[in-house]
Amino acid sequence: MVGRRTMLAHASKMRREPTEAEKRLWRYLSGAKLGGLKFRRQATIGSRIADFFCPAKGLVVEVDGNTHDRERDEALDRRMAEQYGYRTIRVTNEDIFTNMDGVLQHIENIACELPDRWPSAVREA
Fold first, then answer.
1. pTM, to two decimals
2. In terms of C-beta density within 10 A (0-12 exposed, 13-18 middle, 19 or more buried), how is residue 18 classed?
3. pLDDT, tens digit, for every residue of 2-38?
């Protein structure tokens, strides 16, 4: 198992060196631009580093390239839900490059379905 200090260092490196798809998506998720939702980049959650995380909704957004193992990813997502109650959605690099509006709408729709995790998480319209 990887230590916490190593995880944080790896997450920091990933923030400094994002993939092109992550850079593009972050432009829309940063600064609460998407429906007032605040996201973190490369957030450490237990032994996992999530590409994007909205703590107020418990929503993890993963950006997947063509090398991802669907079964392994589904197992990780189930564990995230069981351990923390977080919902994970996955978007592909291709979707980000060709259908950013659809990706953003999907993220916002899922976030709106999720309850706020604490009272101060009320979004401003």
1. 0.86
2. middle
3. 687 887 887 888 888 888 999 999 999 999 999 999 9
CATH number at residue 89: 3.40.960.10
Could you list the residue range(s) of the whole structural domain that residue 65 is in?
Answer: 4-117
Q: What does residue 45 show for φ and ψ, rounded to 5 degrees?
A: -130, 105
On whether residue 123 sits in a domain, the answer given is: no
Contacts of 15-20 spanning 24+ positions with Cβ under 8 A: 15/41, 15/42, 18/42, 19/63, 19/65, 19/93, 20/93
Do 46 and 72 touch, CB atoms closer than 8 A?
no
pLDDT digits (tens, 9 = 90+) for 72-83: 889 999 999 999
CA angle 7/106/93 to nearest 5° reads 55
Distance of CA 52 to the CA centre of its chain: 3
